[in-house]
Amino acid sequence: xxxxxxxIKGLTAxxxxxxxxxxxxxxxxxxxxxxxKLYDRLVQLEKETGIVLAGSPTQKVGYEVLGELPKxxxxxxxxxxxxxxxxxxxxxxxxxxDGLLSWKMDxxxxxxxxxxxxxxxxxxxxxxxxxxxxxxxxxxxxxxxLNIPNKGQVVLxxxxxxxxxxxxxxxxxxxxEEQYKNPRNLxxxxxxxxxxxxxxxxxVNFYAFSLVTAEGVDFHNSQEEKFLFMKEQGFDxxxxxxxxxxxxxxxxxxxxxxxxxxxxxxxxxxxxxDDIVYGESLGxxxxxxxxxxxxxxxxxxxxxxxxxxxxxxxxxxxxNPVAVFEPVELEGTTVSRASVHNxxxxxxxALGIGDTIEVYKANMIIPQIAENLTRSGTVQxxxxxxxxxxxxxxxxxxxxxxxxxxxKKCLAKKRKAISLFVSRDAMNIDGMSEATIEKLMExxxxxxxxxxxxxxxxxxxITEMEGFGxxxxxxxxxxxxxxxxxxxxRFLYSLGIPNVGPxxxxxxxxxxxxxxxxxxxxxxxxxxxxxxVGGVIAKSIVSFFADKENNExxxxxxxxxxxxxxxxxxxxMEGIQFVITGSLAHxxxxxEAKELIESRGxxxxxxxxxxxxxxxxxxxxxxxxxxKKAKELNIPILTEEEFIExxxx
Length: 649
Hints:
Layout: H1 2-23, H2 32-49, E1 52-53, E2 71-73, E3 83-84, H3 87-94, E4 99-105, E5 108-115, E6 118-124, E7 130-132, H4 135-138, E8 145-147, E9 154-161, H5 164-172, H6 183-191, H7 196-201, E10 205-214, H8 223-232, E11 240-243, H9 248-258, E12 266-273, H10 276-281, E13 292-295, E14 302-313, E15 318-330, E16 333-339, H11 343-349, E17 356-362, E18 366-372, E19 392-397, E20 400-405, H12 411-422, H13 434-442, H14 459-463, H15 470-483, E21 485-486, H16 488-494, H17 502-511, H18 516-520, H19 524-528, H20 535-545, H21 548-558, E22 562-563, E23 577-580, H22 590-599, E24 603-605, E25 614-616, H23 625-632, E26 637-638, H24 640-646
Parallel strand pairs: 3-13, 21-22, 23-24, 23-25, 25-26
Antiparallel strand pairs: 1-8, 2-7, 4-11, 4-12, 5-6, 5-9, 9-10, 12-13, 14-15, 14-17, 15-16, 15-20, 17-18, 19-20
Helix pairs in contact: 1-2, 12-13, 16-17
């Protein structure tokens, strides 16, 4: 069964890849004959095994918009787990029993119910007693089986997660102040969408970790048998190791070593008794079941001194506090700064300059302040914007205090807005760094976006500026001239409209026939009708173009900008997933290759799975783990030369 399941996963990925490329106008991946042959094989395997994955080309799950998510009470309470940070306590808890040690994934817990082999319901954990019904959303997760072989009642629990690579992709399309803080928050919002097309575009994955019910199946008193059963039904299960008291510490270390290379977020491990009867005989407390325990990584905490709190202004006016402290070593790197996020947290920590604070890396990644030991509370929010010196104000947003600069002409807002305007996904003015923008603004040469296209008027001033000369000035002028010809979607994104990222801009402009005038005068109703555009985005666009000052800026830009046709070939990697390994020759580094792939609609992940379309490796004869995995899954391994040739780079 496991071989057939892997074949189903591989065929689903290959056929979806081929279809995606074909509908982008490129059909070179496989012939129609080969596609039909593979499709028929997938249909045959789905009939033989009873497993049909979400995303299978044999299934068409319709998108649906709901008014609200209905609530439902769980048949049995979903309790939290007791926890420890000491391996010794884990060993003592396990005693002479065998156990299963697995990842504690950091996402949103979901309960799935199947009857007659079909997914009939998906419910979030909620408060443990009552959850929200998200069945239609679960059907568009990347890897949930819509059909399973077992025809009895099957109920299981698992974690919906969004990978770091997907989290980064989504955040890169958002302005800094609108970015998600972590993958867990993004996943929670994605899973609980009223429009499941948004869920589908967020690429949520599901990992099963607990089987609640499976009618008529004997598990021989072993939790591992339950894991194997879920795997046979087509589920991706959390990675686990069978452990005993003697090897437990070594296995905890094994998991710890994998954290830096994992693409999925985790916040610890779970240890479960393998003996089902023994575990159930222990019962539970009011809060915790006694058959499992969570292990949280012991945070490496360093004590240091708070030097200052910087107040960083964004282009929307939000001013964020950033703690600056004496440098310390944490998890192998030197750390000297940590975001404090908002005024409420500044007050909770009672921060003061010179205070002794303890810092750590949340989930071994993000610097945070754990505790303030002296709590002098002397840090106060700045009353004037650090950039424009205009008065600040405190807003209360859902019980959280945040600091704002209300000045519409604030230079920080302008600097951030101009930085977005010239960025690669926007007007792509090469050489116009934020430092250069700041110098030009200090000289009074740039006041609004249109001034960028008039820098030739200031040749003498610019060539005498520090860091500038005749050659650098000429390069900058050439880049500005090149940017005068752009696409409608790039221009729309470059305006910095809240909630409008590069992909949203493309969707809107495509639906509007690449006609900027139509976009500019579109109503909320017209925009909401576009697939993938919700009420928030529609309102942002309409509000932006209803502002007189914004329209003056746009008119100024349109007097010099010309639009060219959007090239569909730019997206010839749409839906294709790559993994890059080994040294590179044609690209300066992996980030450069990653950026190129993502600019053409592709995706780059850190590990080879059944969803991987290609592994890029100049040494396809090596015995690396990624090469071995690719060969096991029949995933093509391309050299850079082959990659460049295949995708016409």
